[in-house]
Design brief:
Helix content: 25-40%
Largest sheet: 6 strands, parallel
Mean pLDDT: 94
Strand order of the largest sheet: 1-10-7-4-2-3
Order of helices and strands: HEHEHHEHEEEHEEHHEE
Strand content: 15-25%
Number of strands: 10
Shape: globular
Radius of gyration: 16 Å
């Protein structure tokens, strides 16, 4: 996989891209960009590993994250915020950004609203092409993510996607960003040269 080519293709599709060696450098950058506003964070292990909730609170922001304060009201505030932060399950070298979701709140935050969106991702999310990105989203990210939940799905048992019909399935929708959604103020991919998230 060619990181330079990935960056070029992301930019060609209309995404802004910034690159950092460490999660600490990326956090400092985000703190310099996001202050005195409202911020929503989607389900995002990368944001947790970066300590973004606490760091963005320290910049005068109102930060909404259902991992900190569970409930429907928090989910609504996340998606209504002026800035939305999430990660990607996979990013293809050809520039597509893929995410799978069970409830849809994270996908909604990435796809709708007049806001700034930051997609923070470690290099482990980068894939050779669209097919390998889809495979990673379904068979790596989703099967690791399901381990956090008290569910009995086939993928939790053997670590492989079965495209099951389980009522406890956590992967009910796939969002592919081929480019920034209309009316978004800004969509920026923040690439970090570390392995982060799932």
């Amino acid at each position: 996989m060619d990181i330079e080519k990935t960056v070029k293709n992301l930019k060609r599709r209309g995404f802004e891209v910034s690159r950092f060696e460490t999660k600490e450098e990326a956090s400092e950058y985000l703190m310099s960009q996001i202050h005195d506003t409202t911020v929503g964070i989607g389900g995002c292990m990368t944001a947790k590993q970066m300590g973004l909730y606490e760091k963005l609170l320290s910049c005068g922001n109102e930060v909404y994250w259902h991992w900190v304060e569970p409930g429907t009201e928090t989910l609504i505030k996340e998606n209504a915020a002026k800035v939305f932060i999430s990660s990607a399950n996979a990013i293809a070298e050809t520039g597509e950004i893929l995410n799978i979701d069970g409830k849809g709140n994270r996908l909604a935050g990435l796809a709708f609203g007049q806001k700034r969106v930051y997609i923070v991702a470690g290099v482990n999310k980068l894939c050779d092409d669209f097919d390998s990105a889809l495979h990673r989203a379904r068979n790596v990210a989703a099967t690791q993510n399901v381990q956090r939940f008290d569910v009995r799905t086939p993928c939790k048992m053997d670590g492989k996607c079965h495209d099951c019909s389980s009522p406890e399935r956590i992967c009910n929708a796939l969002l592919v960003l081929w480019g920034p959604m209309m009316e978004m103020e800004r969509v920026e991919v923040v690439l970090i040269n570390e392995e982060l998230g799932m």
